[in-house]
Design goal:
It is a single chain. The chain is 18% helix and 32% strand. It has 8 helices and 24 strands. The protein has helices at 26-36, 42-54, 77-82, 112-119, 137-149, 168-185, 218-224, 228-232, and strands spanning 13-20, 89-94, 99-104, 124-130, 153-159, 191-194, 239-246, 271-275, 280-282, 286-290, 294-303, 306-308, 310-312, 316-321, 332-335, 343-352, 358-359, 363-368, 371-384, 391-392, 396-397, 402-413, 426-430, 437-444. A 6-stranded mixed sheet has the order 2-3-1-4-5-6, with helices on both faces. Strands 7-8-14-11-10-15 form a 6-stranded antiparallel barrel. Strand 4, helix 5 and strand 5 (153-159) form a beta-alpha-beta unit. Helix 4 (112-119) runs parallel beside helix 5. It is globular.
Length: 457
């Protein structure tokens, strides 16, 4: 697969992440994708080759691979020394069909929060399973997190298939287990592919060792899966979190002068900058500003010094409105008639990411988009059991627990149900003392005790 010769801006951008248990071969798989798609610079490849030779890499278990592909992604000194991934490593590469942003995430349980970070904005996640070990508890945890985050595309890569002699029966058993877990938690259309990251089987090129597998290679799958924006385009209403109110202090850009009536002064210019989180907006559309509820219409859309007639997700633009409304950073501009009520009481799913446990009565900060308010945890109503995928009654949450809680906010926020709006239905729980992130939160649409609830969001 060759590198694209056309400008990258013409390619579809696809974000994906890896996940899996310790030593499942995530970094090696990423290295294989980079190596076989010829996305590695010559000097980088030479450095990795020298390091691999110095460490005596090559030939293990009959392997013909002469370099340690994991070195292409494990950039931290602690990662190189321990032979594990700790932080999320982002890599960029392209083929003749698509441009990719890849997040290689850790496998250790204590770094689950890094996996959440990498998967939260992904169009797809590749979950690795060691063919010798099958589906483990960490696999179930990762699949549960992906269901919580509503990642639109999930691929299970059964790695190290070469170490089980390319056994079809082993692969089919793991495939059935993975599909069963996915079915229990509500993940649909999960693809399962047998690969050898070390040898390259079914990663970029089809393998002659697996004639019983007739599906696509991993890269072919990633090149053809739809992006989140493609899946949601036309389905979600317009949402625009305001990041900045623009009031220029100098002369107005000449490119924008035509957008104003003759004789209008640049001092009259007021616009609201941000990124279109979902849907689209056109000049003339009616909008509502949240949480105030004030209404207006869009009279201008500015982008990079020029005026547009329409903007779609995920474009970053500035909006000009027909009315002078008190709008601040953190407010949300939405299509009129598409938003319910702003919320001051939340019922949410929490993926607890801190060693500091959550207890009822805890005072926290809730960060939603660019706005942060105080919050009080009124009740912890359940904890997800990774074996049964039911909820048990608890009084708190510990590191890596997934559970439900009721939170009271100091002021109402324009938050929506995550199942309907992935971007506006998510928030962070922050420690008010040190500013560290405590949890990733996803808004649910009904309060109550879910001790016997199945895993349905």
């Amino acid at each position: 697969m060759s590198i694209i010769e056309a400008p990258l801006a013409q390619l579809t951008l696809f974000r994906f992440a890896t996940a899996g248990s310790v030593d499942d071969g995530k970094s090696t798989l990423v290295g294989r994708l980079l190596h076989d798609s010829k996305a590695i610079l010559a000097d980088t490849l030479d450095a990795v080759t020298r390091t691999s030779e110095r460490r005596g890499f090559g030939g293990e278990n009959g392997s013909t691979q002469k370099i340690d592909l994991a070195l292409l992604t494990d950039g931290l000194r602690a990662e190189r020394e321990q032979g594990i991934t700790i932080d999320v490593a982002y890599r960029y590469f392209s083929t003749d069909r698509r441009s990719f942003i890849l997040a290689d995430t850790p496998g250790h349980v204590q770094y689950t929060k890094n996996t959440v970070t990498g998967a939260s904005t992904a169009d797809a996640v590749v979950v690795l399973v060691d063919a010798r070990k099958g589906v483990l508890e960490q696999t179930r945890r990762h699949l549960s997190v992906l269901r919580l985050l509503r990642v639109p595309n999930v691929v299970v890569a059964v790695n190290k298939i070469d170490l089980v002699d390319f056994s079809e029966s082993t692969f089919r058993a793991i495939e059935a287990d993975a599909q069963a877990v996915a079915g229990e938690i509500g993940l649909s259309d999960v693809l399962v592919v047998p690969v050898s990251a070390l040898e390259g089987d079914n990663v970029v090129e089809r393998s002659a060792h697996t004639p019983w597998y007739t599906g696509a290679t991993l890269l072919e799958i990633l090149e053809t899966l739809p992006t989140t924006d493609e899946l949601e385009r036309g389905l979600e209403p317009f949402r625009f979190p305001v990041q900045l109110v623009i009031r220029p202090q100098g002369a107005l850009a000449p490119e924008l002068s035509s957008a104003f009536d003759a004789g209008a002064s640049f001092r009259d210019y007021r616009a609201y900058a941000g990124q279109v989180a979902s849907g689209s907006v056109s000049v003339g559309d009616e909008i509502t500003v949240l949480p105030s509820g004030r209404k207006a219409s869009v009279v201008g859309i500015d982008f990079a010094g020029r005026a547009l007639d329409r903007a779609v997700a995920p474009q970053s633009v500035s909006l000009r409105l027909s009315e002078e409304i008190d709008i601040a950073r953190g407010d949300v501009i939405a299509a009129t008639g598409t938003f319910g009520e702003v919320k001051q009481d939340l019922y949410a799913e929490l993926c607890w990411l801190s060693a500091k446990p959550l207890r009822e009565g805890a005072k926290v900060l809730i960060k939603h988009g660019s706005k942060t308010v105080q919050g009080l945890v009124r009740a912890v109503t359940g904890k997800l059991d990774l074996e049964t995928f039911g909820y048990g009654a608890v009084s708190g949450l510990e590191l890596n627990d997934i559970g439900t809680a009721q939170i009271r906010l100091s002021s109402a926020l324009p938050i929506e149900t995550y199942a309907l709006h992935r971007r506006t239905g998510a928030f962070l729980v922050v420690d008010p003392q040190d500013g560290n992130t405590l949890a990733a939160g996803l808004v649910k649409d009904h309060p109550g005790d879910h001790e016997d609830e199945r895993y349905v969001i």
